[in-house]
Amino acid sequence: MKQEQGFSTSVPLGGSSRRLGVLTVGLGAVATTFVAGVELIRRHGKHPVGSLSQLGALESATGERVRIADAVSLAPLDGLVFGAWDVLAGNAHERARQVNVLSREDIDSVAEPLSAIQPMPGVFLPEHMPTLEANRVKSAKSKRDLVDALREDIRAFRRSNALDDVVAVYCASTEFEVEPSPSHRSYEAFLQGLEKGDPSITASMMYACACIEERVGFANGAPNSAVAIPALRERARELGVPISGSDFKTGQTMMKTAIAPALQQRALGVNGWFSTNILGNRDGHVLDQPAAFRAKERSKAGVLESILEDRGEGLYADLFHKVRIEYYPPRGDAKEGWDNIDLFGWLGYPMQIKINFLCRDSILAAPIVLDLALFTDVAARAGWGGVQEWLGFYFKAPETEEGTRALHDLFAQRRKLDRSLARLALI
């Protein structure tokens, strides 16, 4: 039994020859960009820009910079095996062409492995995603039966690919927000809610439940309540399954969590921060619905209040923060974020900052999916069950254990990530 600074594992952390299954919930723009990207890296030597697991470094006890990939026993890229659930037909090659994020040349150069990924039928609850079409959907008598069907999918995926372990990352669309209910309070109540078809139990919760029961680490990349409810946190702790979320921190929010700490560190005041996005992909279409946008708005809006907290200095007491997302189909996956920051400095004199970030949503999200998959796997092997607060670096609305306040400062999050990776490292 290996002991490492307060944790133990009976499983060697070495991962050089391991086969790790990576299941994505959804096979749309983010998931296909992730899978195609890994195939392009391992088959054609493309550069894994944006991935800390591949390019990031840690500082050793002697002050040296050591690559995370050399320090931590991560599963190798050559050992990754991909699978997915989706409610739309089409293999990964067909879907990658449809979403049109990567060039046709890049997509077709890895057509063979992408074509082999045929998504399993997904769970679709139209009351939570009424704007989406679905033509490849699981049917069952109850929500409990749907969870059992997802569990069987995981077991079949594990068996057929001779996998050592499996992790899952939620890459599907935003669900309509649901209110907390008695079914969310305990795992026993959750199971009863599944039997009764409780409408407060969403598809993302069902995926998370199936993964937790199958000891599959689960990272939630959407602003859904998938792993936010006490019932599933309780079960993840009990079974030692790592969970994390929520909502990938990619473009505009990444910039906010970098710029706001700089203003705070310099004791500069902020009166207002207005943010808007134009986005034309499927996520933008879903977020055009007010009920779906409310969940996204909460995850995007909460970051500033945490970082720019007024402590009596009068710097942020009257901060006005507004966030908007506009669906604009011509842009597709090429999102544009505009920020206007009204700030003030010495003697209260006003200033402004304008930011125009023309980013690619899935290009920024794909390396996050890779890092979360590899880091969730190593956390599982180390016996780190329950909410993985140290992975909050990757999320707009980081999940925390009850009574713990979420960090939003990007640099504080990175320090926490590095400390946890150092505990997992061989340095």
Layout of secondary structure:
Blueprint: E1 2-4, E2 7-9, E3 20-25, H1 29-44, H2 52-55, E4 57-59, E5 65-67, H3 68-71, E6 80-86, H4 92-99, H5 104-109, H6 111-115, E7 120-121, H7 143-160, E8 165-170, H8 187-196, H9 203-213, E9 217-220, H10 230-239, E10 242-245, H11 252-265, E11 269-279, H12 282-287, H13 290-307, E12 320-327, E13 334-344, E14 350-360, H14 361-381, E15 386-387, H15 410-424
Parallel strand pairs: 3-6, 3-8, 6-7, 8-9, 9-10, 10-15, 11-12
Antiparallel strand pairs: 1-2, 4-5, 11-13, 13-14
Helix pairs in contact: 1-4, 1-14, 7-9, 8-10, 9-10, 11-13
Descriptive overview:
The protein is an alpha/beta fold and 427 residues long. Helix content is 39%, strand content 20%. The protein has 2 domains: 2-248 and 363-424, Rossmann fold (3-Layer(aba) Sandwich), CATH 3.40.50.720; 252-359, Dihydrodipicolinate Reductase, domain 2 (2-Layer Sandwich). It has helices spanning 29-44, 52-55, 68-71, 92-99, 104-109, 111-115, 143-160, 187-196, 203-213, 230-239, 252-265, 282-287, 290-307, 361-381, 410-424; strands spanning 2-4, 7-9, 20-25, 57-59, 65-67, 80-86, 120-121, 165-170, 217-220, 242-245, 269-279, 320-327, 334-344, 350-360, 386-387. Strands 7-6-3-8-9-10-15 form a 7-stranded parallel sheet, sandwiched between helices. It has a 4-stranded mixed sheet with strand order 12-11-13-14. A two-stranded antiparallel ribbon has the order 1-2. Helix 1 crosses helix 14 (361-381), helix 7 (143-160) packs across helix 9 (203-213) and helix 8 (187-196) packs across helix 10 (230-239). The relative contact order is 0.16.
